[in-house]
Structures are given as C-alpha cells and as structure tokens.
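Predict the 3D structure for this chain.
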Amino acid sequence: MTGIHPLIICGGNGTRLWPMSRTESPKQFQRIGGEASFTFFQTAVQRHRGAGFEAPVIVSSVRHRNTVAGQLAQIGCEAELIFEPMGRNTGPAVLAAALVLQARDPGAIMLVVPADHVIEGDLNTTILSMRAAAREGHIITFGIKPRHAETGFGYITDGGPIAEHPGLHRVHRFVEKPPLRKARLLVESEIAYWASGISMFSASVLIEEYRRYDPESLAAVQQALDSGKSNDRGLLLNPDHFQQAASLPTEQVVFEKSPRVALAPLDVQWSDVGSWSAMYGISQPNHDGNVLQGDVIAVETRNSLVRSDTRLVSVVGLSDVIIIDTPDALLVTRVGHCQNVKKVAEHLKAAQRSEAEKHRTSTAEWGSCTQLVDRNGLNLSSVTLKPGAGFEIDPAGLREITMVAGALDITSGTTRTALEEGGRAQLDASAISRIVNTTDREAEFVIMTQSATLGLIDSINALPGGAAGAEPAQTPGQATGEGAAPDARSA
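Done. Predicted structure below.
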C-alpha cells in the first residue's frame, strides 16, 4: 500500500505581511519566528514526513525555483518539483500534480497542503484515518472548528455523518467569506467549520471531476505537461497551454459541485497568518506580552510585536504596536489596523517601487546578492559566490567586476580571465559572461552595471547544479526574475 502524497502549493504574494513578504520572496518562504526557525514552507513540508507519507510534490512559480530548492536542501528533503510559468490559482496547480501522480500510480492519494499556514496539534492522525474514504472516491475537505466570527475565511457546514467512515461527514454547503452577521450565525450554529484549505482525494477522482466540470482546463493542463520542459531540477509547464486553463481554485471548479465531497473535522490550532496581528497571535509572548525577534530592546512597552532583520531597534513607552524593520523598509502600525498593510504594498506596486517586489538582499543556491545602488541606469551590487558555484550574466552596455576577496574564473565573449583580490575586469557588452568560483572558499566582488534597460537583478542566471565545470544551460523561454537569481535559463 503506497502512502499519501503531500502536495505543497506555493502560490500567493502575502501582501498583508509586507515588508517581510514581497512579490519575489513571498510569505511562505519567510521565517515564522526567530533566526533559527523554519520558514512557513519548510514547516508545511516537515509536517507530513514520516510513516504513511510519500515524498512531497511541490508546485511553485518558476521565479521561486532557487528558493524552493535551497529551502528543501536545508531540511534534507527530496521532492518532485513542478513549476508554473504564471499563476493560475490553485485549480490548475492541483490538477497538474494529479496528472503527474496518476500517470505513475493510478491509485495515488493526494493531500493538498497550503505552504503558508501555521498548524499546532495532531493533524496527521485524522488525515491518515481518512485514507480508506479517499480510496473509495470521497473528496475530503478538512474543517476547523471556528474560534470566532471571521469574515475573511470560507466556511463548510456539516450535512451529517457518513456511517461507513467514522469521523467523516457530508457537506451541506460552502459559504465563502460571509459578512459579519452571517459569520456570527454560522459560528453560533455549531455545525459550521472554517475551510482550512487542506484536502485529500485520489488523483484519478480529481481528474474525473475536472473532466466532468471543466474539460477545457483538463485538456490545457495535460498539454502543458506533455509539452513542458523537464530536467533534474523539475518540470516547467508549457506557458502557451497552461495559460488556457481557467484561473480558479479547485474548490470552485470541483468541490462546490461534486457529490463526492465530504468533511472531516480537525481538532487543531490553525491560522492562515493573514496579517501581522495574526503573526503576533501565533507567537509566544514574554512576560510583558511582547514578541521580540532580532536585535530588539523594549522599555515600558507591552503587547507588541517588534521584528528586526539586521539592526538594533529600540522601542520605548508603546503598547499594542507592530514594528517590522527590514534593510530597505520599515512598517509601524497598531494592532487592529494590520489588515490595511496590503494597501501600502498596493500603493508601492502602483508606483513601481522596488520595495513591493523584492528585498535588497537576495539569496540563491550559488550565494547572495545585495543591491547597493539602482537608479538612473546605474546598478551597483555586492555579490558573494559559494565555493565551486557559478552563474551566467547577460550582456549590458557597460558591466565591470571588482574583486574584494577570493578568486574568479570569468569567460566573457572570447576572453577568459582569472581575477584575484583587488583585480578588475570589464565584461563583453555583446555576449553572455560566465562567472565561476573555482576555489574552496567564498568569493566576494562588486558588479557595476550601466544600462538604460537592464539591471543586475534581471540578468543573473544560475548554472545548472551550481557546478563550476557545468556547461551553459539552454534557455527554454524568456528569463523570469527571482531576486538576484532568476534561473529560467536552467529550466
């Protein structure tokens, strides 16, 4: 008997957790707590490892490929990786994973798990007890007993027990994000549950239901798989076909229509961490009710969340505040106003400010890049390259490297240069350059780019596997950015 295949969906931008969460480094890839804590994504993966579970399947945007690979490596987890060329909501992502699993194992059972929720309690006992029901064709949604009337969640109402499967219930109806009065009535009814976003079913059943309710999307996703590009780093879905799939959640396409859907209540503490107030709520406060993360001093301060990524933050004489300090942006708000943080992110995006899209420092499997200056066609960035790692960089009007520490091997056009500490090299303005650290210690250097149309962040492409001796990878399509390390060239 094969185990359950966890499917971790890594979508969403998490604008309500700005400035920690950005478009190119969204909430699911951020640490939940202090410096030593796992990220939301890593926690979701770890939760379903062990007896009864197979290796996870991860569906993520291609722009986050390096982040996914790096965070999986940190926890020593092998996974099957599927990358979306663009976001199409959860439906096509789940369907793509179902088609992949069903082709390999016609009886595969899938567990869909959001990558950015926090769950405390025994979740897996209930999940494992529902395997037989899933094999018999039930589509199981897991509900959480509501703690209060919440207008931002979906609800599932209980339609009565299913005798053949203890703990499983029929679904009477779904209620999506009700107004406050209706939410209160649902909570008072004692037969309503928050929709957790966790579900389990046979891959073949989901495919059958898509064939019944949305055959066009089924055909589009199947074609995106058949004509996708695959290598040892994962499968990149074909964008021309994938964009033809309906951009809808699985719940709307299948769950709300199918007679196979069922409800399994969970007895756990659950939060989708949709705001900084929620982040404060899931953290362990000190004796003053404060949650302090990073280098923080709090004096005469109570019931507050203060988080600093890089520098000392001092707070004096405040209560019920949220302070989030990152190297390039500071958020100060009061508890109770955190739902409006997304308006700041939306304003920054409308103004085309980089603070909405990315952090100043980006990490990748090959190292890290810190943007020092990026304006008026000038980009100055500090780069750290791991031993044996390398990347390719696109040509620009003028691009020059200055070594700070270590050594590099640079191939630029027809010129090959060994660059050591204090050395400088100008890159060919008409050819892709290949930069490799062939030593056993980190290399540190500064890249200056002068170009009206192309900055450093948009032009670094990881070498496949990060091997110093690897051949340049082929480009399957237009490069997409991921912080300092977009790697569509190695898709």
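The chain has three domains: 4-271, 276-341, 361-490.
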